Q: What sequence folds into this?
């Protein structure tokens, strides 16, 4: 089984072929191919390659499944005895990607 550690959107993910990920929004439409450049480590059946900072010659590709917005996150600020109450909501954009190739 092949695994890789990729970095995208300021986060790191452990991926293998067939995985679905929710990552920070990237450009593209559903059905488009995407290639990840920042591959930090690759794990094969027999060996481990760790990059300094990235692995040369490693390849991780995927396909965009959809572009969407996440559930609403409520931000509530409260100060006791000061009559301060603030409520805000936020919906983060994300891209759902299916990993097709780890090499």
A:
């Amino acid at each position: 089984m092949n695994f890789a550690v990729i970095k995208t959107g300021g986060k790191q993910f452990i991926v293998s072929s067939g995985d679905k990920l929710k990552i920070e929004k990237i450009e593209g439409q559903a059905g488009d191919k995407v290639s990840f450049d920042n591959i930090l480590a690759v794990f094969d059946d027999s060996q481990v390659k760790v990059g300094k900072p990235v692995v040369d010659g490693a390849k991780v590709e995927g396909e965009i499944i959809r572009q969407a917005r996440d559930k609403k996150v409520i931000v509530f600020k409260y100060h006791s005895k000061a009559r301060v109450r603030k409520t805000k909501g936020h919906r983060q954009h994300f891209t759902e990607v299916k990993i097709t190739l780890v090499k």
About this structure: The first strand starts at residue 3 and ends at 8. Residues 3-102 form one domain. The chain has a mean pLDDT of 95.
